[in-house]
Specification:
There is one protein chain. The protein is mainly alpha-helical. It contains ten helices and five strands. Helix 3 packs parallel to helix 5 and helix 5 runs antiparallel to helix 8. The longest helix has about 35 residues. It is globular and about 60 Å long.
Length: about 240
Amino acid sequence: MTTRVPEPTLTVDELASRAGVTVRTVRFYSTRGLLPPPVIGPRRVGHYGPEHLSRLALIEELQHQGMTLSAIERYLDALPDDLSAHDLAVHRALVSTWAPDSAEEVSREELERRAGRPLPEEDLCRLAAMDVIADSSGGFRVDLSLLRLGVALLDVPISHGTILAARRVMLEHARATAQELTRLFRDEVWGPFTEGEDDPERVESMKALSAHMQPMMVQALVTAFQRSLKEELKAAFATGD
């Protein structure tokens, strides 16, 4: 069964508002090839969809990590062509694990504007259980790096308990992978690089290398996971065996 892709319905002004950027920024990214072109509708009006919104969020996160636009362009070019808006949201959520705290205090009205939809009490409870939002004196404290992914999960046709169980599994394995990669980097790269040296410039150079390697490692991990998951699901639900 083919999954129905949502039709692009956002104007450039609506896209910019939802993404928290300017229209000029959207158009600049488009000219750089960082965003796919809009779908041209009646009266030559361009319309944008969820993929554009997720790409803007990913670009913002990569910039927050200190990557230049040229580096971001190479990063996006290396992604598989068939990534959905949800896949891009996963990339952004994982990249953001190395970023400073991205939580903000927002009103319910602002939270729903950022989410792009009304959020009844049931949805708010589910987002809170996924650690996307928390109650605060001014409304809600929201983790903006996870908001779009959390909102997307609200429409997944499985139980809330299953989503939380899957989240626990992913967090456990992600932490174990991060620990192993950190150990490998420390022992095989950082140790030999600094051994016998007391040069602050060399230390700062290695720190900068570490910061730039993080998004690339995340990209490799996400891509490998997506391919492995497809293979495992295909094998698990194969018929006639």
